């Protein structure tokens, strides 16, 4: 994970915890992970998460009330970010799709809608969990 000199100590610690996690983390899980680093209150985590989201380094997954480090922090040219969330192993795949962006853009224009944020979240099974016989182990 690339160092970000503009981050405070707390923000850097939260980003590191998310970057090392294999699954999305709740704010309280982050707090538990960082207690030895001096974190004592949820507000410390939420403040760091707010700034990290503002910088485009972290995403909040609304459907599961958890956070993930951005998989492509320098690729936010896309206005629509999508997430595929495996309900079995918890892994998240972040992606964007020009076709979806184009269709939603046409709808937005036709309806004169002014979106503030557009995130697509899909829940289901990743390839490994859908077909465990393919040799991948769940949670690995």
Task: Describe the fold and architecture.
The chain is an alpha+beta fold. It is built from five helices and five strands. It has one domain: Winged helix-like DNA-binding domain superfamily/Winged helix DNA-binding domain (Arc Repressor Mutant, subunit A), CATH 1.10.10.10. The chain has helices at 9-20, 27-33, 42-54, 98-111, 127-130; strands at 58-61, 66-69, 81-86, 92-95, 119-124. α1 (9-20) packs across α3 (42-54) and α2 (27-33) packs across α3 (42-54). The longest helix has 14 residues, at 98-111. The protein is globular, with a radius of gyration of 17 Å. The two termini are 20 Å apart.
N/C terminus separation: 20 Å
Assign a percent range to the helix content.
25-40%
| Average of per-residue pLDDT values | 89
What is the number of helical segments per DSSP (H or I, 4+ residues)?
5
Q: DSSP strand (E) fraction?
A: 15-25%
**Cα-based radius of gyration, to the nearest Å:** 17 Å
In the CATH hierarchy, the third-tier topology is known as: Arc Repressor Mutant, subunit A
| Oligomer state of the chains in this structure | single chain
Compose a concise summary of this entry.
By secondary structure, the protein is an alpha+beta fold. The chain has helices at 9-20, 27-33, 42-54, 98-111, 127-130; strands at 58-61, 66-69, 81-86, 92-95, 119-124. It has one domain (9-127): Winged helix-like DNA-binding domain superfamily/Winged helix DNA-binding domain (Arc Repressor Mutant, subunit A, Orthogonal Bundle), CATH 1.10.10.10.
């Amino acid at each position: 994970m690339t160092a970000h000199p503009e981050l405070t100590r707390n923000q850097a610690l939260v980003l590191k915890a998310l970057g090392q996690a294999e699954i999305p983390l709740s704010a309280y899980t982050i707090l538990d992970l960082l207690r030895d680093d001096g974190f004592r209150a949820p507000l410390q985590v939420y403040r760091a998460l707010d700034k990290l989201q503002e910088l485009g380094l972290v995403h909040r997954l609304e459907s599961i009330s958890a956070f993930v480090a951005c998989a492509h922090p320098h690729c936010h040219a896309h206005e629509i970010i999508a997430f595929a969330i495996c309900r079995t192993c918890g892994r998240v795949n972040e992606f964007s799709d020009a076709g979806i962006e184009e269709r939603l853009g046409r709808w937005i224009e036709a309806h004169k809608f002014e979106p503030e944020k557009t995130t697509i979240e899909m829940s289901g099974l990743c390839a490994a969990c859908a077909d465990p016989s393919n040799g991948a182990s769940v949670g690995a």
